[in-house]
Amino acid sequence: DAKTTQPNSMESNEEEPVHLPCNHSTISGTDYIHWYRQLPSQGPEYVIHGLTSNVNNRMASLAIAEDRKSSTLILHRATLRDAAVYYCILISYNQGGKLIFGQGTELSVKP
Amino acid sequence: KAGVTQTPRYLIKTRGQQVTLSCSPISGHRSVSWYQQTPGQGLQFLFEYFSETQRNKGNFPGRFSGRQFSNSRSEMNVSTLELGDSALYLCASRIRDGYNEQFFGPGTRLTVL
Fold it and tell me: Which secondary-structure segment (H or E) carries A2?
């Protein structure tokens, strides 16, 4: 299973953009990049995913490097409710429902 | 649509006992996966069921087992409980095979004394 590397923790100020990096140098051509986050005392929740092109949804944007060896999750305006652990996960088609969670990045948001 | 539900939410057992946890996926979802979360090991995949068949299994001992019913509801069982089985057990459902996202339940907090 391809692995990802993320910083252990990051800090942000409320209402400022946050860029959460993820390195995945061993990614294969058919691996999708998924992001999940886990708020305190809750199960993880899906945030966004992509293959090659940058992706946007109501929660966040995903910027994928041209060589696909890294990606960045962008929260455009952090709120206190965005404080969570963010996980970057690679998924291959045949992997099914098996998500391999790393340590993730713990994001704290200061008012 | 109702989300993924798990019962019970909290459970206390003693060493040597066995336990069964239940997960009801989102209506229409055919895949259910189970995860164990502990402070030391983080989130670890246990197994996945799709259309009543185990599709994938993580690196856990045989004391951990599961099954899925025809209505896609799933149960996981842990026999001969050990102190180290104390954890948050999460289940997640997804609609079909492929790259689609998983939806997690709130988890069952199991404490083994």
Answer: none
- A44 and B33 within 8 Å at the Cβ level: the answer is no
Which residues of chain A are within 8 Å of residue B90 when distances are taken between CB atoms? 43-44
Measured between beta carbons, which residues in chain A are less than 8 angstroms from residue B55? Answer: 96-97
Q: Which of B110, B81, B92, B88 is nearest to B37 (CA)?
A: B88
What are A98's two structure tokens? 């098996």
Nearest alpha-carbon partner for B89 in A102, A104, A43, A47: A43
Report the pLDDT value the prediction gives residue B71, as an integer from 0 to 100.
94
CB contact under 8 A, A96 and B58: no
DSSP calls for B33-57: EEEEEETTTEEEEEEEEETTEEEEE
Residue A4 has pLDDT above 90, yes or no: yes
